[in-house]
User: Fold this.
Amino acid sequence: GSKIFKFTLNITKGGTKTTLQASSNVLTKEMLDKLNSLSKGDSFEFVDVKAYNTNGKDVIDVYGQKYIVV
Assistant:
């Protein structure tokens, strides 16, 4: 299948937005730490997600979604 090679993670905690970028398909330690610190009502969203198509060279945009902590 397709392989993600870049994405941005927007995290909103207590009304403050933080933007973190990755140049792989793996969450960074900083991303994991911030995600683990979220509380009810906070949110995060994957945006600007890019992947290589199954042929390994064509780039496709991947739909991201916003998630709210409940």
About this structure: The chain has a mean pLDDT of 96. The first strand starts at residue 3 and ends at 13.
